Amino acid sequence: MKSEAKKKVAVFLVAALIATTVPFNFTSVKAQAKTNQNNKYSVRVNAEEEPVTVDGSQQETTKESQETTEPSKETSTIETSTTETSTVQESSTTDITTTQPVTETTTQAPTVETTTQAPTTQVPTTEAPTTSKKTAWGESNGKFYNDKLKQITGAVAKGLDVSHHQGKIDWEKVSKSDVDFVIIRCGYGNNLTSQDDKYFAQNVAGCEKYNIPYGIYIYSYALSKSDAKSEANHVLRLIKSTGAKPTYPIYIDYEDSSQNGLTPKQLGNFATAFFNKTIAAGYKAGVYANLNWWTNKLTDSRFNQWTKWVAQYNSACSYTKPYQIWQSTSTGKVPGVNGNADLNFLMQFDCIEDGHIYSQWVTTKSATIFAKGTKVRICSVCGKLQTKETKKLKPTGKLNTTKVTLRFRRKYNRIRVSNLSAGDKVKSYKSSNKKIATVNKKGVIKAKKKKGKATITVNLKSGKKLKVKVTVRRK
User: Fold this and answer.
1) Burial of 182 (0-12, 13-18, 19+ CB in 10 A)
2) Do 328 and 468 belong to one domain?
3) Domains in the chain: how many in total?
4) pLDDT for residue 251
């Protein structure tokens, strides 16, 4: 009973203090007390919100009607103690803590702090549904369609090939279209600046700026291996001067009528001479030609090791062998490109022969007697690069003579060494008997005035030794 009386006294004292300092109207007072380790009682009071006066100023709670947001509420918290200052904070619930009453109590007037939090608003967002309409030679929802709006089986990406014929291109617009890759002409024929494509640098810069993957092609006039090598140097020069970083292959464009008389073997020889240079420089290899050329002229087996780009302006490509890119039309439309555009589709075909179609091995670093070499080959389907290490070379060397006969004080004008392995050279010459014959650092042997025999040793940098036997006579 005493405990219950103490609770009522505590509640009464707190209520009296609040009534004299803060004009709150209590619509209900619910007290719930429990004993803690310090014999304190906690009383929770629900208060009705009204304007609160603090230091002579008035703050009012504002409410904003939102569909998804509750209005903020002022809160007040009041604590009283026989030894501590009471604090009042705005709250929809009020916590009151008192100590057990004693004979003498001192109570300080509570201070009132108010904070008003602006309501937060959440605006529901909805994403507009994306719909893609089928268009001729276009992409819709990840699928590609031909001129009859039928799906192109196996197509995985759409491409564009460009040259100076397209003039200035707005690459920002191209980047926002359904074009996934570009193949850029760098020029035509031999390595002459007059035969550079005047828009090559600009087109490379546009693709680089807007992160469009690209490859490079050169229109070929090659009628010999030397022409083919010159065309390869043409491409490599322009790649270097523009800082181009193609991720698609470098293509030879075979279609010129001047090459009609070449045999499949000759074309294979020229392509090999071309790609030996570009692959060694680290680039993938590909050949462009129309269906007729692929069927009747580019039939040498060596063409199967390089990426095939087949041109056939039709609703479908009828080339029966594996190929990687199909050029389907020359009258396509692409945002940012003036007039007609050549459109291409990258086709997905499974690799064959252990999973890949590899080119021939091409040496990228020659081995020497002191260091191993490297060679590479590239899958024409997926571009996988294989690297292989080659062994160090064995020392070799051949002398222009192994026996010399001289009379007193006569000279043999120089020992010559040939067929040296890469990286090797003559280090020194040495005579086994300088009283019979001497040899200088150039390999010149000189007989002394004494009969006899001596051996001249040629020391190579690799450690290999070559020997010449010298006989000196009076007459």
Assistant:
1) buried
2) no
3) 3
4) 98
| Domain harbouring 146, CATH code | 3.20.20.80
Rounded to whole angstroms, the Cα distance separating 386 from 379 reads 8
Average pLDDT of the residues in 127-145: 78
CA atoms of 108 and 113, how far apart (whole Å): 15
Question: For residue 212, what are the domain limits?
Answer: 139-347
Query: What does pLDDT average to over the chain?
Result: 78
Residues 147 and 222 in one domain: yes
Span 415-436, pLDDT tens digits = 999 999 999 999 999 999 999 9
- Nearest of 415, 421, 440, 422 to residue 430 by alpha carbon: 440
Check whether residue 90 and residue 144 sit in a common domain. no
122 is a domain residue: no
Which residue, among 473, 369, 475, has the nearest Cα to 420 in the 3D structure? 369
Residue 321 pLDDT class (50, 70, 90 cuts) = confident
State how far the Cα of 73 lies from the Cα of 93, in Å rounded to an integer: 11
- Residues 170, 267: one domain? yes
Sign of CA dihedral 164, 166, 168, 173: negative
pLDDT of residue 441: 92
H or E element at residue 277: helix 264-280
105 and 223 within one domain: no
Question: Highest-confidence range of 64-73, 95-104, 402-411, by mean pLDDT?
Answer: 402-411
Q: What is the mean pLDDT of residues 232-251?
A: 97
Check: CB of residue 334 under 8 Å from CB of residue 174: yes
Whole-structure pTM value? 0.56
Residue whose tokens read 């009969």: 451
Of 347, 365, 383, the residue that ends a domain is 347
